[in-house]
């Protein structure tokens, strides 16, 4: 297996496990039973990767073609369900693991798109989609506004990590170092949004007219 392909595969598996934890943790917080927690873990872990693979023509998607993603998501769900007390000690357990998964999937998605010959702007967009897809599905299934639609830095963090991969690939830098830099930037921006309150500008409220 080529190094670039191996790197994407490893990142996909890591992202699957971490994203599954974020989904399972939210399921536990919402009082779901074990089956519900496992379903939410799996959906959160694979939706972004499936969307990416369908858009770049990698059919069937890696998450469907292989059993590894299902097993990793199930393991993450079971561990989170069993040791939920440990996750409760974190200040933002769902958001913390979501940030890690966001960075890993954004980088893996961008690299895979580049490997399939996608031009760099769309490769970065596909990386962002790969990162945010699981979080959107998780939030919709738990009846809350997806975090990507709020003012918090989320999709922008994924896009920033994706652009690092694009720039590093164009400069001929080592893929592993570029991937780690992209993940680090994405996670940093997301954690700053969580712990420092970094936000995107919000549209000012509309002033009612004379007839309003």
General description of the model:
- The protein is mainly alpha-helical and 212 residues long.
- The chain has one domain (3-195).
- It is built from nine helices and no strands.
- It has helices at residues 3-29, 34-56, 62-65, 68-82, 84-88, 93-115, 120-141, 155-170, 175-195.
- Helix 6 runs antiparallel to helix 9.
- It starts with a helix and ends in a 17-residue tail after the last helix.
Question: TL;DR of this structure?
Answer:
It is built from 9 helices and no strands. The chain is mainly alpha-helical and 212 residues long.
Layout of strands and helices, then pairs:
Elements: H1 3-29, H2 34-56, H3 62-65, H4 68-82, H5 84-88, H6 93-115, H7 120-141, H8 155-170, H9 175-195
Q: Percent of residues in helical segments?
A: over 70%
SSE series: HHHHHHHHH
Mean pLDDT score: 87
What are the segments in which pLDDT stays under 50 over at least 5 consecutive residues? none
Please give the radius of gyration in angstroms. Answer: 18 Å
What is the SS-derived class? mainly alpha
Beta-strand proportion: under 5%
Shape: globular
């Amino acid at each position: 297996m080529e190094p670039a392909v191996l790197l994407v595969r490893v990142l996909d598996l890591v992202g699957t496990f971490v994203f599954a934890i974020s989904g399972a943790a939210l399921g536990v917080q919402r009082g779901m039973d074990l089956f519900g927690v496992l379903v939410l873990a799996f959906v959160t872990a694979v939706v972004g990767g499936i969307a990416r693979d369908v858009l770049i023509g990698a059919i069937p998607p890696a998450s469907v073609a292989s059993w590894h993603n299902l097993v990793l998501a199930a393991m993450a769900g079971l561990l989170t369900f069993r040791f939920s007390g440990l996750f409760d000690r974190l200040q933002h357990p769902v958001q913390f693991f979501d940030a890690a998964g966001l960075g890993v999937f954004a980088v893996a998605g961008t690299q895979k798109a580049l490997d399939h010959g996608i031009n760099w702007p769309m490769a970065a967009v596909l990386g962002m989609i790969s990162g945010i897809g699981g979080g959107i599905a998780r939030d919709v299934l738990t009846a809350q506004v997806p975090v990507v639609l709020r003012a918090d830095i989320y999709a922008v963090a994924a896009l920033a990590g994706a652009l690092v991969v694009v720039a590093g690939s164009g400069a001929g830098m080592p893929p592993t170092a570029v991937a780690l830099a992209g993940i680090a930037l994405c996670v940093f921006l997301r954690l700053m949004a969580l712990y420092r309150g970094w936000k995107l500008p919000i549209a000012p409220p509309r002033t009612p007219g004379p007839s309003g």
